[in-house]
Give the backbone structure.
Amino acid sequence: MSRNAKINALLLLVVAALAVLPLALGLGDHKEEPFTGADGEAETAITEIEPDYEPWFSPLYEPPSGEIESALFSLQAAIGAGVLAYYFGLHRGRRQGEARALAQRDAEAAAQDVPGSGSASGKSTAEQD
C-alpha cells in the first residue's frame, strides 16, 4: 500500500468517525432537536439573553417548508462540489498536459542528439560551429 493510499484511508476513517461518534455517544440527547444548525442555535441563545431582540433584517426568500429548504441547501452543496471538481480537474489536466509536453520535447531533443543522425562526422549542428 502506497503512502498516499494510507493517508487517504486514514482520512476516510477520520471522516467516518466524525459522522458516527456523535450518534454512537449520544451527544445531543438532552436537546429537543440535537442536530440543528448554527443559525437555530444562535437564535435560541439570542432570545434567551435578550427576549425583546428585533432582527436587523429578514431573509430575502423564506422557503415554505423545511424539506424545500433542505433541497435548496443540497442543491447549493452540489453546485459547490461541481465547481470545486471542475477547478481541481482543470488544474490536474493542465499539469498532466505540461508534463506530457515536456516529456515529448525531451524525447525529441534526445532523438536529435543521437550520434549518426546528424552530419557525417556524428556531431550535432551546435557542436560543429
